Amino acid sequence: MNLIFKALNDPTRRRILELLRGGDLSAGDISDHFDATKPTMSHHLDLLRQAGLVESYRKGQFIMYTLNTSVLNEAVSWLIGLNK
């Protein structure tokens, strides 16, 4: 759970998750929305992947990213459970 909160702590990573709500995107498509270097974007995507918030797969020469909603649902359920 700690990795999830670390990943969600950054506004860039939260924005990446918002973008992926619209569907799968390549790393390049995601990067086009930010004024950041490729290594910086790779770092953000890697942290999101390590936290299980996104998954990646190869499509031809591109690495595609997709939102993993089951991990997000689990985190929200856990947070709601703290309120009881």
Give an overview of the whole structure:
The structure is a single chain. This protein is globular. The protein is built from 5 helices and 3 strands, in the order ααβααββα. The protein starts with a helix and ends with a helix. Helix 1 (2-8) runs antiparallel to helix 4 (38-50). A 3-stranded antiparallel β-sheet has the order 1-3-2. The model has no long low-confidence stretch (mean pLDDT 93). The protein has a single domain (2-82), classed as Winged helix-like DNA-binding domain superfamily/Winged helix DNA-binding domain (Arc Repressor Mutant, subunit A, Orthogonal Bundle), CATH 1.10.10.10. The chain has 84 residues and is α+β, with helices and mostly antiparallel strands.
Uncertain stretches: none
Supply the CATH class. Mainly Alpha
Structural class: alpha+beta
| CATH evolutionary superfamily | Winged helix-like DNA-binding domain superfamily/Winged helix DNA-binding domain
User: What count of structural domains?
Assistant: 1
Mean pLDDT over the full residue set: 93
| Percent range for β-strand residues | 15-25%
Give Rg in angstroms: 13 Å
Approximately how much helix is present in the residues?
55-70%
Shape: globular
Q: What is the string of SSEs from the N terminus onward? A: HHEHHEEH
| Annotated CATH architecture | Orthogonal Bundle
